[in-house]
């Protein structure tokens, strides 16, 4: 089940995308903690689920993000 992200988190992503701020995203994938670094290329909704897409076309489901640029958004 998908849990929508907070408005504050969405705003932080949007600022990083518009200003081309190099970003670090820590997220869960299949129960494993992963880290990606890069620029946010876009945000997209696919089948009702929000994703952030980085400059190397990595897609991260937003409700799996633990931290974004060091700021915690979800507990493990």
Describe the structure concisely.
With 76 residues, this protein is α+β, with helices and mostly antiparallel strands.
Structural overview:
The structure is a single chain. This protein has one helix spanning 7-19, and strands spanning 23-29, 32-38, 40-46, 49-54, 59-61, 65-68, 71-72. Strand 4 (49-54) and strand 5 form a beta hairpin. The strands form 2 sheets. It has a 4-stranded antiparallel sheet with strand order 2-1-6-7, with no helix packed on it. Helix content is 17%, strand content 47%. The protein contains 1 helix and 7 strands; from the N terminus they run H-E-E-E-E-E-E-E.
List its salient traits.
about 80 residues; alpha+beta; four-stranded antiparallel beta sheet; three-stranded antiparallel beta sheet; about 15% helix
Which percent range fits the helix content? 10-25%
- Distance N to C terminus: 16 Å
Overall average pLDDT: 93
- Number-wise, the strands total 7
Element-level helix/strand string: HEEEEEEE
Count of DSSP-assigned helices? 1
The largest sheet has its strands arranged as 2-1-6-7
Question: What is the approximate shape?
Answer: globular
Strand content of the residues, in percent? over 45%
For the largest beta-sheet, the strand count, sense and barrel status come to: 4 strands, antiparallel
Low-confidence stretches: none
Could you say which structural class the secondary elements and strand pairing correspond to?
A: alpha+beta
Rg of Cα set: 11 Å
């Amino acid at each position: 089940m998908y849990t929508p992200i907070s408005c504050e988190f969405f705003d932080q992503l949007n600022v990083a995308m518009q200003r081309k701020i190099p970003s670090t995203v820590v997220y869960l994938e299949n129960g494993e903690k992963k880290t990606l670094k890069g620029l946010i290329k876009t945000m997209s909704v696919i089948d009702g689920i929000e994703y952030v897409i980085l400059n190397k076309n990595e897609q991260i489901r937003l409700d799996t993000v633990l931290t974004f640029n060091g700021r915690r958004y979800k507990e493990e």
